[in-house]
Amino acid sequence: MRLFGLGSKDIGIDLGTANILVTLKGKGIVLNEPSVVAIDRKAQKILATGHEAKEMLGRTPENIKAIRPMKDGVIADFTATQLMLKNIIHKICQRYNIGKPRVVVGVPSGITEVEERAVEEAILQAGAKEVYLIEEPMAAAIGAGLEVAEPSGSIIVDIGGGTTEVAVISLGGVVVSNSIRIAGDELDEDIVNYVKRDMNLAIGDTTAEQIKKEIGCAMPLLTELTMEISGRDLSTGLPQTTNITSAQVEEAMRESIDKIVDVIRQTLERTPPELSADIMEKGIVLAGGGALIKNLDKLIAERTEMPVYVAESPLDCVVKGTGKTLEDLERLKTVLINSRKRK
What we know:
Actin, Chain A, domain 4, 37% helix, Nucleotidyltransferase, domain 5, alpha+beta, five-stranded mixed sheet, 28% strand, six-stranded mixed sheet, 3 domains
């Protein structure tokens, strides 16, 4: 007796700059790990992926390299990305007893044909039967529950780790889109630089990310939040603990957040009038980790004079979208970049 029917052989992957998420038909999200891989330089084999590899960042000896193979939403290291995808697909196929799965992968909208082929090849080599690629903003829109196949316009803003992507979608296609390489990672960097410049303290990216998540805001909060941070005092070179406020974090991130808002406005300006009317009615939907920054929705609403909504569980929108696409592949074929089958 076979435990798994044919339906469970479908895998959806969100190949993000910061995190890689995998969904399995009938099971939901089965993997959510940082997009980091540790490789043995000599043997060119994987030592660790995900959380375990993230712990190694900046701490490895000569013979091991821990890297994030995705940078600014695109593949920075082909070999590492291929090894990582192979490793993940093998792991999931073994754990859930799957043969040759069909795979839908969410890729950045700025991806080149060479990169598309690299992703396809890596997944086919990992044992997939068919590979479909879908642009991340389209997947995020489907995952956020927008009716992408309808003849009315919707706008999605996906603020990920490496890129912010804005797309106006109608009839299963992207009508207008814009993408900038300013997103979560850049905001972390802004905080690192601000703390260094204004507080004379050196902190790492992990601490900066924590600050952003806990007290980061795009507009002043009603009650100012404070957080204790530790780093290295740049004058003495010794460890030091100090406090940072939400107002300081807002100031640190202001320039980058302004650029994100500008990109949304530019996209709206290029939207055909008929679709603009639909968008005005439905509002702007925010997805991705950046959507969780406090008061960002309020700031965008104020600057665009439009209603703004944060998608339900914004971090999972892209991977949920890949899963929904698999469930309704025939109807949603138009949203896919490619359709390739292994004979």
